[in-house]
């Protein structure tokens, strides 16, 4: 999967969703530092607040895996500021409280 995402990025470096997909894949694989880099690039390119909310949720899950609860909570809260209806962020934050 990551190979095809890299191909998308090579065609259009500004296509935000490619970075979201890459970051999510890295997060799923436990490659959290790489996930954080990819999602940061996604957030630099994405302008829709609801979609940005999903990026902050992925960042939060990466910090959970890195056992940094404070940063995880911070990012889940940021996700909810951008989209109060983000059920994933709500669930993830409630698991930490």
Provide structural commentary:
The structure is a single chain. With 97 residues, this protein is an all-alpha fold. The protein has six helices and no strands. The chain has helices at residues 2-11, 16-28, 32-45, 49-65, 69-82, 87-96. Helix 1 (2-11) packs antiparallel against helix 2 (16-28), helix 2 runs antiparallel to helix 3 (32-45) and helix 4 packs antiparallel against helix 5. The longest helix is centred in the middle third of the chain and has 17 residues, at 49-65. It is globular. The protein starts with a helix and ends with a helix. The model has no long low-confidence stretch (mean pLDDT 90).
Total strands: 0
Order of helices and strands: HHHHHH
> Mind telling me the C-alpha Rg?
13 Å
Please report which band the strand proportion falls in: under 5%, 5-15%, 15-25%, 25-35%, 35-45% or over 45%: under 5%
Mean pLDDT over the residues: 90
Unreliable stretches: none
Q: Percent range for helical residues?
A: over 70%
- Which structural class best describes the helix and strand composition? mainly alpha
| Overall 3D form | globular
Largest sheet: number of strands, sense, barrel closure: none
**Total of DSSP H or I helical runs spanning 4+ residues:** 6
